C-alpha cells in the first residue's frame, strides 16, 4: 500500500512536470523560423559587413527575448561573402536550398546586393537589403527585393547642403569605381550643375589605391570650394590626410560615406577635424518621435555587445526589424510563412524606427530614407544639416592649419 | 607642381621598393614564390601599430623591433617551406597561398576588421615656395635608398653576397662549387624578413592596415620584381620609381581610370618582350 502510494506520488509528479514543462518544451522545440544573412565578414568590406550583421543579430536577439515570432524562435543563419559577388551568390544558394531559410536580410554595397536580388526573385524568397544605393537594382517586376536605403537619401541632402547651405561656387568630385559611387557622382554632377555650381574635376578611381597625390595635385591650380569624395573609409584615411599635407586650400571636404564613424575619428586624430560626412543615425541623433526608442536601443546595445552602435549597425537593425515585422504580421494573420506572403506583408509595412520611417514603394525602395550631414567637431560627429535635424552649426571654411 | 609631383613619385616608388625588396631576395635565392609576403608586411605593420598605440613607442624604435620580429618569423617559416616536396616552386606557391589565408584570418581575429593607421611623425617640411615634403615621405625615401644600397653592397662587395648571387644565378652549379645552398636560403629568408619588418610600419604610416590588405602589397612586389628581374637590387629601385612615375603621370594627365590599365599594359608587354626584367641584361652564349 505504502509502495503503491510512492509510485502514485512519483507518477503524479512526473505528470505534473510534463504538464508544466510541456508547453515550454513545445515553445522551445516549435519549428524555429530560419532567416539568412549574407554579408562581407572578411575582405576589404569586412568592417562594415560585420557591423551590418551585428545590427541584424541585435534585432533577432531582441525579438527572441520578447518570446520570438508568435512563440517561434527566430534562427539567424549568417554567411560570409568574402566581399566577392560570386561567393555571395553561392552562399545565398546554400542558405535557400539547403538551410531552407524563409527570407534573406543584410548585404553591403550594390555589387554584393545586386546578384542576391535576382536570386531572391528566382527562388521567390523575400530579400531586405541593408545597404544598397543603385537605382536600377529595384524594379517593379521583382516583388521580392526590398531595401531600406536609396541613392536619393544621400544625393538630395548632400546637394542641398553644398548649394544652399554652404553656397559653394565650385566643386570637385572624386568617386570610387563602384556602381553606387559612380551613380551618386553622376547624380551630384547633374544637381550641382543645375544649381550653377562649377564642377572643376571629376575623377573615378579603384578603391584601395595607395596614393592620391596625383589627384590632389590636380586640384591645386584652381582649388574648388568643396571636394566631394564618394569613396570608402580606407580611401578617406589617405585622401583626407594628403589634402591637408599638400595644403590644398579647399573650404570643405565631404565624404558621403566612410567618414561619419567614431573609428574614423579615432584613426585620423586631429586631421579628421572639420570634415563632413553623411549619417542616417547615431546615438543621440534619432528621427523625431523615436528619441526614447533610440536611447533605449543604444543603452541595450552597449550593454549587450560592449560596443558603440553606428549608422551601419542601425542599417542592419532596421532592415531586420522591417523583415521580422512583416513576418510577425503574416504569422499573426494565420497565414503560411511563405515568400509571397512575406513579400506582400513587406509592401504594406509602415514602421517608425530610430533611423527612418520604414515603408516601401512598388519597387521595394524606401519612401522616407534620408541622411543627415554631420561635421567632425572636437572629435565628435555633430549633425549640421538639414535644419530640422541639426544640433550645431557648421565650420566653413575648414581649418587647413591642422596637420595629420 | 612639377617638383611636388617628382617628390611624390619618388616617395611612392620608394614605398614600392621597400615592399618588393624582401620578396625579390627570397624569390631570387630560394625560388620560393612567397604569396604571403604582403600578409607578413601587414603583420609587421600591426606590430608597429600596437607598439606605438599601446606602449607609446616612438615610431623610429618600432622599426628595429619589427625587423627583428619578422626575421625570427621568416626563419620559422623557412623551416616549414623546407618540408615541401618537389616541384618546389609550385608547392611553395600553393603553401604560401594557404599561409596567406591563415595569417589573414589570424589578423582578422586578433586585430578585427577595422582599418588602422599609424600616426605620422610631424608636420610637412616646406622645401621651396609651394613644394612640401612630409616626414613620412622622408622616412620612405631615406630608408628605401639606405636598404637598397646596403643590400646591393652586401651582394656586390662581400664574399657572402657573391655566394648569394651565385645561388641566384645557378643553384646547382653553386652547390657544386661548394656553396652551402641551405645556409644561403637561411640568410635570404633572414634578410627578406628584416626588409618585410621594415616595410610594415611604413605601410601603416603612409597608407593603412587591414587584414586583407596584404594581397595588394604582394602584387606590387611581384610586379616590381618582374620589372627589374629577380635579385637585381639596384634595378628594383629604378623599376619601382619608373612604375610610380608611370602611375602618377597617367593619373595626372590621362585620369585615374587609366592608372592600372597603363601599368598592366606595360607589364604584359614586358613579359612578352623582355621576360628577364626591364633592367636585366640578356645572358650571352658564353654565360649560358
From TrEMBL, chain A:
InterPro entries: BCAA_transport, Leu-bd, Leu_Ile_Val-bd, Peripla_BP_I. GO terms for biological process: amino acid transport. The keyword Nucleus does not apply. Pfam families: Peripla_BP_6 (PF13458). Residues 32-378 form the Leucine-binding protein domain. It comes from the Bacteria. Keywords: Amino-acid transport, Signal, Transport. PANTHER family: ABC TRANSPORTER SUBSTRATE-BINDING PROTEIN, LEUCINE-SPECIFIC-BINDING PROTEIN. Belongs to the leucine-binding protein family. This is Branched-chain amino acid transport system substrate-binding protein. It comes from Desulfacinum hydrothermale DSM 13146. The lineage of its organism: Bacteria, Pseudomonadati, Thermodesulfobacteriota, Syntrophobacteria, Syntrophobacterales.
Automatic annotation (TrEMBL), chain B:
Keywords: Amino-acid transport, Cell membrane, Membrane, Transmembrane, Transmembrane helix, Transport. GO terms for biological process: amino acid transport. GO terms for molecular function: transmembrane transporter activity. The chain crosses the membrane at residues 6-29, 61-81, 93-113, 137-155, 184-203, 209-229. It comes from the Bacteria. One of its GO terms (cellular component) is plasma membrane. Pfam families: BPD_transp_2. PANTHER family: AMINO ACID ABC TRANSPORTER PERMEASE PROTEIN, BRANCHED-CHAIN AMINO ACID TRANSPORT SYSTEM PERMEASE PROTEIN LIVH. This is Branched-chain amino acid transport system permease protein. It comes from Desulfacinum hydrothermale DSM 13146. The lineage of its organism: Bacteria, Pseudomonadati, Thermodesulfobacteriota, Syntrophobacteria, Syntrophobacterales.
Amino acid at each position: 500500500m505504502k509502495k503503491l502510494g510512492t509510485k502514485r506520488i512519483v507518477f503524479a509528479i512526473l505528470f505534473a512536470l510534463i504538464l508544466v514543462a510541456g508547453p515550454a518544451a513545445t515553445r522551445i522545440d516549435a519549428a524555429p523560423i530560419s532567416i539568412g544573412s549574407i554579408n562581407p565578414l572578411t575582405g576589404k568590406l569586412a568592417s562594415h559587413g560585420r557591423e551590418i550583421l551585428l545590427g541584424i543579430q541585435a534585432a533577432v536577439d531582441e525579438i527572441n527575448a520578447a518570446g520570438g515570432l508568435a512563440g517561434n524562435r527566430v534562427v539567424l543563419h549568417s554567411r560570409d561573402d568574402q566581399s566577392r559577388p560570386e561567393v555571395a551568390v553561392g552562399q545565398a544558394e546554400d542558405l535557400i536550398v539547403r538551410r531552407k531559410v524563409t527570407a534573406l536580410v543584410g548585404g553591403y554595397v550594390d555589387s554584393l546586393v545586386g546578384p542576391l536580388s535576382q536570386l531572391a526573385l528566382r527562388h521567390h524568397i523575400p530579400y531586405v537589403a541593408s545597404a544598397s544605393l543603385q537605382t536600377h537594382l529595384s524594379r517593379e517586376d521583382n516583388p521580392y527585393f526590398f531595401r531600406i536605403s536609396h541613392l536619393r537619401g544621400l544625393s538630395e541632402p548632400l546637394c542641398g547642403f553644398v548649394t544652399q547651405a554652404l553656397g559653394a561656387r565650385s566643386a570637385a568630385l572624386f568617386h570610387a569605381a563602384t556602381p553606387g559611387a559612380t551613380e551618386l557622382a553622376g547624380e551630384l554632377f547633374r544637381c550641382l550643375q543645375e544649381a550653377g555650381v562649377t564642377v572643376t574635376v571629376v575623377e573615378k578611381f579603384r578603391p584601395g589605391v595607395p596614393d592620391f597625390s596625383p589627384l590632389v595635385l590636380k586640384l591645386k591650380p584652381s582649388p574648388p570650394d568643396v571636394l566631394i569624395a564618394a569613396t570608402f573609409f580606407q580611401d578617406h584615411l589617405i585622401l583626407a590626410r594628403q589634402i591637408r599635407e599638400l595644403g590644398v586650400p579647399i573650404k570643405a571636404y565631404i565624404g558621403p560615406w566612410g567618414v561619419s564613424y567614431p573609428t574614423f575619428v579615432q584613426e585620423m586624430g586631429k586631421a579628421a577635424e572639420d570634415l563632413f560626412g553623411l549619417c542616417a543615425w547615431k546615438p543621440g541623433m534619432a528621427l523625431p518621435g523615436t528619441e526614447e526608442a533610440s536611447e533605449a536601443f543604444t543603452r541595450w546595445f552597449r550593454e549587450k555587445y560592449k560596443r558603440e552602435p553606428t549608422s551601419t549597425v542601425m542599417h542592419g537593425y532596421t532592415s531586420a526589424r522591417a523583415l521580422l515585422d512583416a513576418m510577425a504580421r503574416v504569422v499573426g494573420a494565420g497565414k503560411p510563412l511563405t515568400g509571397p506572403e512575406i513579400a506582400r506583408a513587406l509592401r504594406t509595412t509602415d514602421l517608425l524606427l530610430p533611423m527612418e520611417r520604414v515603408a516601401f514603394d512598388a519597387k521595394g525602395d524606401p519612401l522616407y530614407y534620408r541622411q543627415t550631414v554631420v561635421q567632425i567637431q572636437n572629435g565628435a560627429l555633430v549633425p549640421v544639416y538639414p535644419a530640422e535635424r541639426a544640433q550645431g552649426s557648421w565650420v566653413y571654411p575648414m581649418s587647413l592649419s591642422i596637420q595629420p | 607642381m612639377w617638383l611636388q609631383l617628382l617628390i611624390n613619385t619618388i616617395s611612392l616608388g620608394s614605398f614600392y621598393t621597400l615592399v618588393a625588396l624582401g620578396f625579390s631576395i627570397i624569390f631570387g635565392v630560394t625560388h620560393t614564390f612567397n604569396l604571403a609576403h604582403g600578409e607578413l608586411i601587414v603583420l609587421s605593420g600591426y606590430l608597429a601599430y600596437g607598439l606605438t598605440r599601446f606602449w607609446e613607442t616612438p615610431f623610429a624604435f618600432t622599426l628595429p623591433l619589427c625587423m627583428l620580429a619578422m626575421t625570427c618569423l621568416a626563419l620559422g617559416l623557412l623551416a616549414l617551406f623546407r618540408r615541401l616536396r618537389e616541384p618546389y616552386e609550385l608547392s611553395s606557391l600553393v603553401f604560401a597561398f594557404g599561409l596567406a589565408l591563415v595569417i589573414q584570418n589570424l589578423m582578422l581575429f586578433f586585430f578585427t576588421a577595422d582599418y588602422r593607421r599609424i600616426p605620422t611623425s610631424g608636420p610637412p617640411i616646406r622645401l621651396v615656395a609651394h613644394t612640401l615634403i612630409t616626414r613620412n615621405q622622408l622616412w620612405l625615401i631615406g630608408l628605401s635608398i639606405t636598404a637598397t644600397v646596403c643590400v646591393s653592397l652586401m651582394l656586390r662587395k662581400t664574399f657572402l653576397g657573391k655566394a648569394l648571387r651565385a645561388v641566384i644565378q645557378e643553384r646547382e652549379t653553386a652547390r657544386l662549387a661548394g656553396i652551402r645552398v641551405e645556409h644561403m636560403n637561411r640568410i635570404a629568408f633572414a634578410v627578406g624578413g628584416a626588409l618585410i619588418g621594415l616595410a610594415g610600419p611604413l605601410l601603416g604610416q603612409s597608407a593603412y592596415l587591414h587584414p586583407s590588405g596584404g594581397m595588394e602589397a604582394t602584387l606590387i612586389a611581384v610586379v616590381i620584381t618582374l620589372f627589374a628581374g629577380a635579385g637585381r637590387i639596384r634595378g628594383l629601385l629604378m623599376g619601382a620609381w619608373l612604375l610610380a612615375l608611370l602611375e602618377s603621370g597617367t593619373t595626372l594627365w590621362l585620369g585615374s581610370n587609366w592608372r592600372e590599365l597603363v601599368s598592366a599594359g606595360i607589364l604584359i608587354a614586358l613579359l612578352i618582350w623582355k621576360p628577364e626584367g626591364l633592367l636585366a641584361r640578356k645572358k650571352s652564349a658564353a654565360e649560358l
